[in-house]
Specification:
Strand content: 5-15%
Helix content: 40-55%
Bound molecules: zinc ion
Number of strands: 15
Strand order of the largest sheet: 1-9-10-8-7-6
Number of helices: 26
Low-confidence stretches: 8-41
Distance between the termini: 31 Å
Shape: globular
Amino acid sequence: MRTIRKPYLPYFSSAFMALLILTFMLNACQNGSQDAPTSKTEEFQVLADQFADLQVLRYRIPGFENLSLQQKELLYYLSQAARSGHDIIWDQNYKHNLVIRKTLENIVEHYEGNRKDPRWEQFMVYTKRVWFSNGIHHHYSTRKLLPEFDTTYWNTLIQGCPKANFPITPAYANPSQLAAFLQPIMFDPKRDAKRVNQEAGVDLVTGSANNFYSGVTQKEVEAYYKPLKNPNDTTPVWFGLNSRLTKVNGKVTEIPWKSGGLYGQAIDRILFWLQKAVTVAENPKQKKALELLIAYYQTGDLKTWDAYNIAWVQDTESMIDVVNGFIEVYGDPLGMRASYESVVSFKDMEATKRIKAIGDQAQWFEDQSPILPEHKKAKVTGISAKVITVVQEAGDASPSTPIGINLPNADWIRKMHGSKSVALGNIVYAYNEMGAKGSSIQEFAWDQAEIDRSRQYGPLAGDLHTDLHEVIGHASGQLNPGIGTPKETLKQYASTLEEARADLVALYYIMDPKLIELGVMPSLEVGKAEYDGYIRNGLMLQLRRLEAGENLEESHMRNRQLNAGWAYQKGLANKVIERRQRDGKTYFVVNDYQALRELFGQLLREIQRIKSEGDFKAGQALVETYGVQVDQALVAEVKKRFESIQSKPYSGFIQPRLVPILVNGQIKDVKVEYPDNFVEQMMEFGREYATLPVVN
Ligand code: ZN
C-alpha cells in the first residue's frame, strides 16, 4: 500500500522545517557531502519542468557519500535492476504503449521539420505527458490523454523523420502504415478511454484499457479463480499477482511474468543486476531475501514470492533496502494484478527516530482504538517503521512517486510476520521546498488563525499523518476468521476503504495527547492544523483535479471525500464542521475539534467492521454515498480560485544517476549525478533500458 501526497497541503518554513534543515545540515557536516542540500540550496533547482497539469521536480540523496563502498555498489546494482523493468510498466498499462513511446521517441530524436512550429510545442507537451504517465492514460485519473495537435500534423511528424528507426510489425510495415495504425489509438477519445474503470455496473475488466487481461470478461475472471481459492487456507497466495489472464485456444489461461515467460527479456536483465547485488549484500538476511527474489523472478512461483516477502520483512537491520517486483494492484480494477515498481533506498537514521517512537507504541494504539474489541489484534507484531532516503525509483513509482510505502500487501503475512512502513524523507523534503513557494492556504483558509496554525504546524502535521497512516493505520485491526481478503469481499471498493481506514486511524490519533507525551509533537494545535487541512482538502481543494462533469474515481481522492464528507454530514446538526460563504467564496470551517475526532472514531469503527466482516453492501453504500459524487458548482469555483496560484496539481521526479568509477574493471567508487532535463532523461531511459519487443 502506498501513501501519495495530498494535493496542496500547505508547506511553510516553520520550526519543524528548521529542525529538518538542521538534521540535513548535521548529516552534511558529518560526511562533508557534495550532495547535501544545505551548502547548495541556492544552486540546486528543485523545479525542472512544468507542462499541462504536471510539474517535474528533483530530489537529492543527502548522506550518500557517507556510505561504504560496498553499500554504494549495492545501491548501484539495485538501481540498475530497478531501471531494467522500464518497459514492463509501459506494456502493463496498455497494450499499445510501447509502440507509441518508441514512435514518439523516434520523432523527438529524428524529426527534420520545423521545431519552431507551435504544433511542435504541442507535440512535446503530449510526449512529456505520456512519459510522465508511463503511457497514454493520465497517471492519476487514468483517462486517455488527447493530443492538442491534429492528425494532419501527426502524419507530417512521421513523414518528417527519414532517418528514424520506427517499430515495424506485420500490422504496420512502414511509417505511413504506422501513422495510420496509431491514429485512432491516440486521437479517438472513445477508444480505450480509461486505463482503470471503477464505475459501478460496468464490466470492470473489459471496461478498462490496461493490459492485465485480454479477451476475457469480469465474469470469466471470477469464475477462473473461484475454484482455486480455498477459504480454509490461512496462507493463501495472491492469485493473479504476476500474470496476464487471457484465452489460449478458447480456454482461460494465465501467462506468468517471469524469466522465459511474458516480460522475460526485461526480467532477465533485472536478474542480471540482482545477482550482482547478492555478491555485495550487507548481511545474511538481506542476501537470503535477494536470493528468494531471484528465485521468484526465475520461476514465477507465488509461494516463493511469499517466502521472499517474509524474508524481506525480517531483514530490518540492513542499512540499504529495495522494493522490486509486481507490487501494487491499483492498476487492476479487480485488485489482483500488480504493476512493476522499484524503490531503492537507505535508512535515514535521524528522521527514523520520530517514526520509530510511534511504531514502538503500536500495541497501545491498537488497545485504545475505537474499533470493536473483536476486530482488534491481541498482539500487533513486527511493525518496522523508518524514514528512508530514496536513491532511485522506477516503474509505477516514477516519475510520480508515493511519499509513504507499507508492504507487503498480503494480509496473512502482515498478521503473522509484520510489515515494513517507510516514509520517503528526501522526497517529502523536495515537496516541502517546492510547496513553500506557492500555496493555497491564503485563498482557502477562513481566518488568520487557521493560516497561522497551518504555517506553524502544517508540515509536522503532514509528516505525522503519514507516519500514523502507514505505521499504525494499515497495520491495525484484524479480519474475522474465515473471511476472504478485502480484495475478494469488498472488490472495487477495497482500496478506497483501506485508505479511508488508515487515514481515520491517523486522524483519530493526531488529536491524542499521547503524541505530546511521546515527544513527537508540541501540542494539539498540530492535530487541529491537520483537521483544518484534511477537511479543506477533502471537501474542496482536491476538486481542482477534476474536469467539469467528472466525479471522483481514484481511491485516495474517494477516501478523503468519504471521510471528510461523512463527518460533515454527521456533524451537521451540531455544526461540527460549518460551510460558510464570504464574498461569493465557499469555506469549510471546523468548529469543534473534539467532536470531529469522535466522528472520525465512529467512522473508523464502521469501516473496520466492514473490512473485518467483508460487508460489501455497507462498504459500497459508504463509498457511493460520500466518496463519488461531487458538487459541480464547487468544482468550478475551486478551479477558478486556483487560477491565481502558481503550482501544478501533480508532481513527479527526475531520477538521480549513479555512476560507477571503474579502475581495472573494479568499482572503486560510485558518484551521484543530478540530471535536470526531463526530456533527456526520458530519452536516455527509452534508449538504455529498452528490453521488450513491440508486439501489438
Ligand atoms: Zn495507505
